[in-house]
């Protein structure tokens, strides 16, 4: 199901690139454990944003293409790549119609973005793009609202400014994506998850939230400014200190393009 809430992350590009924590490096280790290696492989990262997954895979030795509809985010991705000393081929495009040649990739990934896709069209496009036996990875790196913590307080404030926002209260688990992949004929479906705390300064947390779908990507600039000031007051009153430990969960589903997609062998 495609969300009807449609933020524009291009509006948040600077905060997005500066303050949104990327997928942790342990993600690559867990993918190796599930049979997905990167050295010398062709990888396509859909909805790449500022390239947080793409950079991990490039560091791991893959040839990476990153695709996103928001050109300003890709500019941030290129700058972050330069700072990291890696190179990714970033292109503007959508997951449902990439314009890329079929059968060109060993791995196709989607990090923190599947909920924005038209799943039947995106899975069909991924099958077209993957080589036989290729792997798909749908991953998330989510903050966790727990009773009384800074995430719960932040989500309550977002809703008070933006009642149309529907992404709060999450658990970091996405069982529906397994159904999306199974329905599209992917096989060998497996999942993994791990939790960790991400340290933020109060200023960085405010920047992270300005870059979120419910704030900078969907509210008018004056409302973003009012929200940011209100969040600053909440942090000062309820979560004082120089560092805020924000619990996060990394979760992913991996699956394989079925062998039935292999071209038939010519008769002898």
Automatic annotation (TrEMBL):
CDD domains: AdoMet_MTases. The keyword Methyltransferase applies. Residues 44-138 form the Methyltransferase type domain. Keywords: Methyltransferase, Transferase. One of its GO terms (molecular function) is S-adenosylmethionine-dependent methyltransferase activity. InterPro entries: Diverse_substrate_MTase, Methyltransf_11, SAM-dependent_MTases_sf. Signal peptide: none annotated. Transmembrane segments: none annotated. GO terms for biological process: methylation. The keyword Methyltransferase applies. Pfam families: Methyltransf_11. Belongs to the methyltransferase superfamily. This is Methyltransferase. It comes from Streptomyces qaidamensis.
């Amino acid at each position: 199901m495609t969300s009807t809430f449609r933020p524009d992350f291009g509006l948040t590009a600077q905060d997005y690139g500066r303050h949104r924590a990327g997928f942790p490096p342990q993600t690559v280790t867990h993918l190796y454990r599930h049979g997905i290696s990167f050295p010398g492989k062709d990888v396509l990262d859909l909805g790449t944003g500022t390239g947080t997954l793409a950079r991990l895979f490039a560091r791991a030795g893959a040839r990476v293409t990153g695709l996103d509809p928001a050109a300003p985010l890709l500019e941030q991705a290129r700058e972050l790549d330069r700072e990291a000393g890696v190179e990714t081929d970033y292109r503007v495009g959508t997951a449902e119609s990439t314009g890329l040649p079929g059968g060109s990739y060993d791995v196709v990934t989607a990090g923190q973005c599947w909920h924005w896709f038209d799943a039947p069209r995106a899975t069909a496009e991924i099958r077209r793009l993957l080589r036989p036996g290729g792997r798909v990875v749908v991953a998330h790196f989510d903050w966790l609202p727990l009773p009384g913590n800074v995430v719960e307080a932040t989500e309550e404030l977002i809703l008070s400014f933006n009642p149309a926002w529907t992404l709060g209260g999450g658990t970091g688990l996405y069982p529906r994506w397994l159904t999306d992949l199974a329905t599209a004929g992917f096989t060998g479906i497996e999942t993994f998850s791990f939790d960790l705390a991400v340290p933020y300064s109060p200023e960085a947390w405010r920047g992270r939230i300005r870059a979120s779908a419910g704030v900078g990507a969907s509210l008018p600039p004056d409302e973003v400014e009012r929200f940011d000031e209100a969040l600053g007051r909440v942090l000062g009153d309820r979560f004082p200190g120089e560092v805020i430990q924000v619990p996060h969960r990394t979760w992913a589903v991996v699956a394989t393009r079925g062998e039935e997609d292999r071209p038939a062998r010519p008769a002898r």
